[in-house]
């Protein structure tokens, strides 16, 4: 599967962005779909993921109540709605696809990655 992330940009603190991850190849129901982010000098960290039908979602504590992940199966697209953005949310955001049997929280469980999209939140 090939992944294409988009939707990043520059936004003020408190603002919102919606990231999209479009996939080609097998349908999303065959994978767990995740969003990760990486800030300069830091390790890639888990943000949110979604798997199964009906869907189960997973999230990092740092984004609880602010971010939402959703899946448009007909469009083969996964969305990350980011509200109440903070400067510490600034990073390159990556979408990824991994095995349904893997740990949805860890990057090593994902074997397909998009190219990343930059999110910058100004204070």
Describe the 3D structure.
This protein is mostly beta strands. It is built from no helices and eleven strands. Strands 2, 4, 5, 6, 9, 10 and 11 form a seven-stranded mixed beta sheet that branches. Strands 1-3-8-7 form a four-stranded antiparallel beta sheet, with no helix packed on it. A hairpin with a 6-residue loop joins β4 and β5 (45-51). It is globular. The model has no long low-confidence stretch (mean pLDDT 93).
Q: Overall 3D geometry?
A: globular
Following the backbone from N to C, one meets helices and strands in this order, namely EEEEEEEEEEE
Q: Structural class, from secondary structure content?
A: mainly beta
Percent helix, as a range, is under 10%
What percent of residues are in strands?
A: over 45%
Radius of gyration: 13 Å
Summarize the main sheet: 7 strands, mixed
Model regions low in confidence, pLDDT < 50 over at least 5 residues: none
The pLDDT mean sits at: 93
- Count of helical stretches: 0
Total strands: the figure is: 11
């Amino acid at each position: 599967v090939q992944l294409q992330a988009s939707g990043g940009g520059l936004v003020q603190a408190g603002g919102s962005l919606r990231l999209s991850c479009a996939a080609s190849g097998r349908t999303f129901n065959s994978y767990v779909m995740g969003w990760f982010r990486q800030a300069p000098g830091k390790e890639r960290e888990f943000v949110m993921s979604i798997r199964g039908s009906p869907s189960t979602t997973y999230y990092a504590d740092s984004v609880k109540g602010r971010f939402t992940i959703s899946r448009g199966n007909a469009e083969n697209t996964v969305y990350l709605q980011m509200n109440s953005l903070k400067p510490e949310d600034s990073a390159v955001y990556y979408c990824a696809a991994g095995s349904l049997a893997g740990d949805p929280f860890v990057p090593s469980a994902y074997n397909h990655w998009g190219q990343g999209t930059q999110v910058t939140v100004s204070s």
